[in-house]
Design goal:
Layout (H helix, E strand, L loop, with lengths): L1 E10 L2 E6 L2 E7 L15 E5 L5 E6 L5 E2 L4 E2 L3 E6 L7 H13 L3 E6 L7 H9 L6 E4 L8 H8 L3 E5 L6 H9 L8 E2 L4 E2 L6 E6 L2 E5 L21 H7 L16 H7 L5 H22 L1
Helix pairs in contact: 1-7
The structure holds guanosine-5'-diphosphate, magnesium ion (MG) and zinc ion (ZN).
């Protein structure tokens, strides 16, 4: 007999499937394993539970999914940055591109705000505040977490960002839990991965998914020609570019470039757009030949 459930945790090749109020530890049918997108936390699945472990038979259709972090069927992604480790805005922009292309609402959280002057956090957030919700928070003091809670009530959200920005600490403070968190090594000011698995927690009337930190070195799965669609800050201007299908790189009469020149579009974000554009193009051409 087949049951329907939701994958709430994946660890060491085992899947925790929630059905009603019980979690069943399952393995998975061979064809579903070993691919990055095979089974993700957040997936609705059918499974057998006559034996222990149970067995996942099929993944039901998804509303959306991300590969980094690996989650399915989410409403919001909370992109977490902090003063340390030093923010990687290419990573932030790539998560944004993936969120927009999957119809997921992004929220940018500047954590560890207890460590900086508000103006410093503000300057980071202001580059993004035109296009998405931004919020300064502290997992340490709890600052901003109520406001964040109001934004995500009733939604399924996942935490995303470099390791050691404080994702697990946010959950600990919100939930009063004591999940293992990492140290920020003073020598290299770089986070190490303490969270080694992906799991859904219920908090603030929402489902919050903790994930491992990651970098995003691999290619985005879009064509460079579509990239600008996922830059809402470009859209107001791109309609008046001289050429239809303008990529806003070197075409004459480009209104996006003009807006960058006037300070209407964040310059650093535009420069990263060019880098990401070239990276996608080079990777695509490499694969093709
Ligand atoms: N001062 C301060 N430190 C924080 C805050 N949030 C997290 N940390 C510290 O940052 C380090 C990494 O936190 P962790 O939650 O493991 O990060 P994760 O890898 O993103 O899950 C730990 O040493 C935390 O104590 C914060 O709001 N303020
Ligand atoms: Mg963590
Ligand atoms: Zn243009």
């Amino acid at each position: 007999m087949l049951f329907k459930g939701k994958v709430v945790k994946i660890l060491a090749g085992k899947y925790w499937v929630l059905e009603k109020n019980t979690q069943y530890i399952c393995s998975a049918r061979g064809v579903l394993r070993n691919t990055e997108e095979g089974i993700l936390v957040g997936d609705n699945v059918t499974f057998e539970r006559a034996e222990i472990p149970g067995r996942i038979i099929d993944v039901l259709p998804r509303k959306n999914y991300l590969v980094r972090p690996p989650v399915a069927n989410i409403d919001d992604v909370l992109i977490v940055v902090a003063k340390e480790p030093k923010p990687d805005f290419i990573l932030v922009d790539k998560i944004l591109i993936n969120s927009y292309s999957q119809g997921i609402r992004p929220i940018l959280c500047y954590n560890k705000i207890d460590l900086v002057e508000y103006s410093e956090a503000y300057s980071v957030l202001s580059a993004y505040s035109q296009i998405l919700f931004t919020i300064g928070i502290s997992a340490e003091t709890g600052f901003g977490l109520m406001e964040l809670g109001n934004m995500i009530k009733g939604r399924s959200v996942c935490l995303a960002g470099q390791s050691a920005v404080g994702k697990t600490s946010m959950l600990n403070t919100i939930l009063g839990l004591n999940l293992k968190t990492g140290e920020l090594s003073d020598k290299i000011k770089k986070g190490k991965n303490t969270t080694r698995h992906v799991e859904i927690y219920k908090a603030l009337g929402a489902e919050i998914i903790d994930t491992c930190g990651f970098s995003m070195l691999e290619n985005l799965r879009i064509h460079e020609g579509e990239l600008a669609y996922y830059y809402p800050d470009f859209l107001d201007y791109s309609e008046t570019c001289r050429f239809k299908g303008c990529t806003h790189i070197s075409e004459p009469g480009c209104s996006v470039k003009e807006a960058v020149g006037k300070g209407l579009i964040d310059k650093a974000r535009y420069e990263r757009y060019i880098r990401i554009f070239k990276e996608i193009k080079e990777n695509r051409e490499k694969e093709f030949y």
